[in-house]
Write a structure and sequence with these properties.
The strands form six sheets. Strands 17, 18, 19, 20, 21, 22, 25, 26 and 27 form a nine-stranded mixed β-sheet that branches. The protein has twelve helices and 28 strands. By secondary structure, it is an alpha+beta fold. It is elongated and about 95 Å long. It starts with a strand and ends with a helix. The protein has three domains: about 50 residues, no CATH class; about 130 residues, Immunoglobulin-like (Sandwich), CATH 2.60.40; about 260 residues, Spore Coat Polysaccharide Biosynthesis Protein SpsA, Chain A, CATH 3.90.550.10. Strand 17, helix 5 and strand 18 form a beta-alpha-beta unit.
Length: about 500
């Protein structure tokens, strides 16, 4: 076996001096020639020059023995082949958007003699996983020369240890328990036996961690085992693959029917055939139906509010993506919604928003987050108003708060939803992005502009009386947000200026 001869000098830590020697020249070395600092001692250790990975058999997953329904029962062979290709592409997008460190593997290779995986070991509940990467890297030369017994001890809390194979001249005690001890006088055999150890989960939990500890020669390595049940993807049928096949438009409306009709007409002109779901909480005496082909108009209890309506609309979406827009927006000739779909398809972002005409400077914003885990403070800031530009999509940037016109992944947005609490009935836009913080990747594009009909029509006056609330309503919103998110302080622009609020009061 080729080895390094290394001088180990220890005080409170470890100090290594390496000599590039082979096993044949170990006897000729003179560790005593190294003069350690005062208070240190000199010892000789043996380190592996290279490590050969051994293919260790592990428990195979149970084959899919099922007498139930299969895709081939419903599709011809060529239809099934095309469908599987489409599903593979959809699954790739689903996996890209999933925020999970599952594929990150961190192998610790330090001055400790123990190498081990510090992250990246996953095990399904009540299943087994091999502790791949566990290895003792170096041994004291005197221990090896004297054939001193080497002991490695493993312990767990939510599982037990099994051996897929036993190595001759190695004693293993505690197989099938949470305490496993391995003893031998041969370093190579010790490492070989470590390669045959598997961890078996014994406590069912859909998503938890166990900490496996390996102790050797006074050193302890802690390996987190992520126990997680399989998470099934949610894939969508792309149908013809056109925009209208993959995106559903969700609109929350209130009073402003002239604006709403303009919005519907703009979609029918530029993206004909796109389904629109409209949630309307206008009082019954003023309610006007706009039901039409590809338009589903839902009448809600009056003055239910922003997020309750958005939730209703989102609940009716069955496409991979949905577009949310207020009723006073509309599609312009230069608006490119297909570009948004392409960005979501080709990146791992979950949501991307457009820019309002005449408001390009405020198309995006970020949050200043200060304090610690127990005292988080949030402050809405427009400088910097975004982060890095998204590769391949010039003019589009990562951010934290978007405009009220965006396309998002239906699956991930449904996992967050829109909070329908009455405190958010009249002021609610930024609240979505507080709930999405750290959960969704959001972006905004400066160069994709939509129309914004802020002046409205004859019904706009009734709308403004409700849209711009007084201080009492705003205080209720601030109080709710602080306690909901366990915040110490917030300074958020909710889109209702003092000027607008005063204007609304005057009209009352």
């Amino acid at each position: 076996m080729s080895i390094f001869l290394t001088t180990r000098i220890r005080l409170c830590g470890i100090y290594l001096v390496k000599f590039n020697l082979t096993a044949d020249s170990v006897a000729k070395s003179d560790p005593g020639a190294v003069q350690p600092p005062s208070g240190y001692e000199v010892k000789t250790v043996l380190r592996y020059l290279r490590r050969e990975e051994v293919d260790i058999p592990t428990e195979e997953e149970t084959p899919c023995n099922c007498d139930g329904q299969r895709p081939s029962h419903y599709l011809s062979p060529w239809e099934l082949a095309n469908k599987q290709k489409e599903m593979a592409e959809s699954l790739e997008r689903f996996e890209k958007r999933r925020i999970d460190l599952r594929d990150v593997h961190n192998q610790v290779e330090g001055s400790s003699p123990i190498s081990y995986p510090a992250h990246g070991v996953y095990c399904r509940p009540l299943k087994t996983v091999r502790l791949k990467g566990v290895h003792i890297d170096w041994f004291e030369a005197s221990v090896v020369q004297d054939q001193t017994q080497l002991t490695a001890h493993l312990s767990a809390e939510k599982g037990v240890f099994d051996l897929t194979s036993s190595v001759d001249d190695v004693a293993a005690e505690g197989e099938g328990t949470a305490q496993l001890t391995i003893r031998t006088t041969n370093p190579s055999l010790l490492n070989r036996q470590l390669q045959y150890i598997v961890y078996r989960s014994t406590l069912y939990d859909a998503n938890t961690f166990d900490l496996v500890r390996l102790q050797y020669a006074g050193f302890t390595a802690t390996m987190p085992i992520h126990i997680q049940q399989v998470q099934l993807p949610w894939l969508y049928d792309q149908k013809g693959g056109k925009f209208q096949d993959r995106v559903t438009v969700v609109v929350k409306t209130f009073y402003r029917y002239s604006n709403l009709k303009r919005l519907i007409a703009s979609f029918q002109e530029h993206y004909p055939g796109t389904r629109m779901v409209i949630a309307d909480d206008t009082p019954s005496e003023l309610f006007t139906s706009v039901q039409a082909p590809n338009v589903d108009h839902f009448q809600m209890p009056e003055k239910t509010g922003y997020f309750a309506g958005r939730n209703l609309g989102l609940s009716q979406v069955s496409t991979e993506y949905f577009l949310y827009t207020d009723d006073d927006h509309y599609i312009r000739n230069e608006t490119r919604l297909d570009m948004f779909v392409s960005l979501l398809d080709k990146t791992n972002f979950h949501l991307v928003s457009a820019t309002f005409e005449k408001r390009v400077s405020r198309f995006s914003s970020t949050l200043e987050i200060t304090g610690d885990e127990d005292h988080i403070c949030l402050r809405h800031q427009f400088k910097p108003n975004h982060f890095h530009e998204i590769p391949g999509f010039p003019g589009c940037y990562a951010n934290e708060i978007c405009e009220n016109f965006f396309i998002a992944s239906t699956n991930e947005m449904k996992s967050i939803g829109f909070d329908p609490d009455p405190a958010l009935a009249r002021i609610g836009h930024a609240e979505l992005f507080l709930s999405a913080l750290g959960r969704l990747r959001t972006a905004a594009c400066r160069n994709n502009v939509i129309g914004h009909n802020r002046t409205g029509g004859p019904d706009n006056r009734k709308y403004e009386r409700f849209r711009f609330p007084g201080e009492k309503t705003k205080d209720s919103k601030h109080k709710y947000s602080l306690f909901k998110h366990d915040l110490a302080c917030t300074q958020i622009d909710w889109g209702t200026t003092k000027k607008n609020a005063t204007k609304a009061k005057t009209k009352k």
